[in-house]
Amino acid sequence: MISREHLLRSLESAGLQLQHSGFEALCAYVELLIRWSRRINLTGFSFDADTQAAIERLLLEPLAAARIAKPARRVLDIGSGGGSPAIPFFLGLEQASELVLVESRAKKAVFLREALHATGIRGTVVADRFEQLVVPELFDAVTVRAVAANGPLWELVERVLGSGGRVYWFHSASQPQPDQNAVSWGIPVRLLEGASRVSVGTRS
Fold first, then answer.
1. Cα–Cα distance measured from residue 111 to residue 91, given in angstroms and rounded to the nearest whole number
2. Which one of 4, 22, 104, 164 has the fewest CB atoms closer than 10 angstroms to its CB?
């Protein structure tokens, strides 16, 4: 189990900080994630075998992206899996008040519901494919990682983004930005010292 002191030192080393309530929520999320990851495969990282790599990819990188993000109230995450980048990103945002997680795999959806409860985040888990999502109200921000980054996806993302909304695509440096017109992309931003990037797109 990762101690609170270890987590706090990792945040400080990366130049990141959270308010007390946000840090408490992050700790609750990490504790739950570690416990569940020993039973089902939630992420491609192991907190037991490679603790620091897991902390950096799953926690610090989303928090670093939140630091450069535009304030957002309603946030949507696609293919939420183990809750990263969505939950840490949400905790690092200004003014965020609602998080919707889309995850079609039943066991992961159950985990995500527990994660929202444990962190105190006001939100919803949609146990369905993103293509089937019905949106009664548009979102200020959409986060995406580990899904097929193709034209049809970005066209769907465009439909759920409100005026001035942003999509934050977490990807490796080797992945080029899609060649399509649904989303206008800025220059990829390097996260921490690794190969991970976040590209920020707006509705075209």
1. 18
2. 164
Find the helix packing angle between 106-119 and 20-37, rounded to 10°: 150
Angle between helices 4-13 and 20-37 (to 10 degrees): 120
Q: What confidence tens digit (pLDDT) does each residue in 133-167 have?
A: 988 899 999 999 966 677 788 888 999 999 889 99
pLDDT in tens, 4-48: 999 999 999 999 999 999 999 999 999 999 999 999 999 888 888
178 DSSP 8-state letter: P
Is the alpha carbon torsion for 151, 157, 163, 167 positive or negative? negative
> Among candidates 168, 158, 6, which has minimal Cα distance to 92?
168
Q: Is 169 exposed, middle or buried (0-12, 13-18, 19+ CB in 10 A)?
A: buried
Per the CB < 8 A criterion, the answer to whether 135 and 41 are in contact is no
In sequence order, what are the residues at sequence separation of 6 or more whose Cβ sits closer than 8 angstroms to the Cβ of residue 29?
83, 87, 88, 91, 115, 118, 119
Reported confidence tier of residue 180, pLDDT bands at 50, 70, 90: low
What's the confidence (pLDDT) of residue 44? 85
